[in-house]
Design goal:
Helix content of chain A: 25-40%
Largest sheet of chain A: 4 strands, antiparallel
Oligomer: homodimer
CATH architecture of chain A: 2-Layer Sandwich
Radius of gyration of chain A: 11 Å
Largest interface: A-B, 18 and 18 residues
Strand order of the largest sheet of chain A: 2-3-1-4
């Protein structure tokens, strides 16, 4: 079963959202990344083995503020 | 002996430079961070035990492009 995780992240320009996109697409087990700078949202689809905390920590290490996050599936 | 490291990093807004500043000031052993958005530079002063690679990797994990880096001291 794939997972879907949703995060609300403060991103102020396309450089910010590109940075988040870059670290997530580099992460093993990520199958899709959908980022909206307008909505300040990051949606990540992963394979079975990639857990919420790993995805959360990867985003946190960008230095962006993660305002909330949840597992959709 | 403290170390001084210099990096050229692509940062396109203050959200970008704040993110880099945030991850570096969180890093154990960092004594000073000086970031110029205008010059696209990141200067880091650390204690004896913090090596170049650790600082480099911390910046790289922000997802920003590190165009070059060097040890000043």
């Amino acid at each position: 079963m794939p997972h879907q995780y949703h995060f609300d992240v403060t991103m102020t320009c396309s450089g910010c959202s590109n940075a988040v996109n870059r670290v997530l697409t580099r992460l093993d087990g990520v199958s899709n990344v959908d980022i909206s700078l307008e909505k300040q949202t990051v949606d990540v689809t992963t394979g079975d083995s990639l857990d919420y905390d790993t995805v959360y920590n990867t985003i946190a290490k960008t230095g962006k503020k993660v305002n909330s996050g949840k597992t959709i599936q």
